[in-house]
Design brief:
Phosphoribosylformylglycinamidine synthase subunit PurQ; nucleotide-binding; ligase; alpha+beta; two-stranded antiparallel ribbon; glutamine amidotransferase; 7-stranded mixed beta sheet; purine biosynthesis
Amino acid sequence: MALWHGSHDLEGVDALVLPGGFSYGDYLRAGAIAALAPIMAEVKDAAAGGMPILGICNGFQMLVEAHLLPGGLIRNAHQQFVRRDQRLRVENSSTAWTSDFSRGQEIVIPLKNADGGYIASDDELDRLEGEGLVAFRYLGVNPNGSLRDIAGIANEGGNVVGLMPHPEHAVEPGFGPDTADAMRSGVDGRAFFTSAIAAVVAAAA
């Protein structure tokens, strides 16, 4: 179900995905204006209530700008848009969006961004590391200069996760990254959504 940015109604959904793409106002600072959309008031309330919320790429930028996740996202270190199938390591498998992964698992998810460099103060980075809130880390190549190779983070409750790569582009054979088995057969992104379904079912039990 698609929700309208100008609405104040989440229409009874059990989980939310703030999708990637380029929202209005990105020329000011990625996600800064979108984070002020009317519906974000309800998103904040839902996050506080424990609803699973996933921010992908521009959605991650919105979560950071709305202070639902710490830190910030800036222009890629090389000042260029990057598009690649990116290796990641799962650092936290206990969130609402990562429970179907195992900690330390290596996955491949498409990445495409120009403002994907994750930044935070040294103290904040130490806190994220110490509390296990780094959800994903880049492997092989750091595509955008993110500090400590951070690709995604979670909030303290584990219900809000944001990352720059696009798991929704790796859920269906024929449309995902290449694998050793076949071209475009990668479906590593599917576990994000099966994890969220399990979290919703568990919360309703």
